[in-house]
Amino acid sequence: MAYGEVSKCGRKTALSTFFAVTFVAFTLSVIALISPSWQYVYLENGRTEHHHGLWLDCKRDYSFDYGRTREYYETLYRRDLQGSPFDIFFLPPLQCVYKFDYYIDPEDLYDHDHDENRIQNDAYQHLFLGWKIAALSGCGVAVVSSASALLLAVYAFCHRTFICASTVLITIAGTTD
What is each CA distance from 117 to 30, 101, 114, 124, 158, in whole angstroms? Predict the structure, then answer.
């Protein structure tokens, strides 16, 4: 075996490892960008769970005590039609709202006699604030540059010059994420 063949085999092994790690990092970045579960909160008294993300907020309600009967929720989530012993583990669906579409419903403020300050403070938590915009754009730049690095890593198997360009893009993705 000549020296050039060993070097070529080592380079392809290193490139394959680089490509695999970059692909895993890209996949995790996309999941982090899409996922609403950056912060998970379970409110025990209200029996609700909240998933807070950069651009999406979701809520799952387990409560039967907000003025509606248990039968209402059972028919809503089709629990009355389920016959399996595992049906108690059925989760109600997440109800999601985009942060840039968030508004305070005046009905909640006045008709249901809620504390206006509490609802205003809760709404502030769900707004599309500046730091969330900065984090979202940083994650977006990281995903785009890591996708470009993946594309160049495929070409790097044929041309060595793409190795350097792919490494630079991964460095950019790492500093913005």
Answer: 36, 20, 9, 11, 62
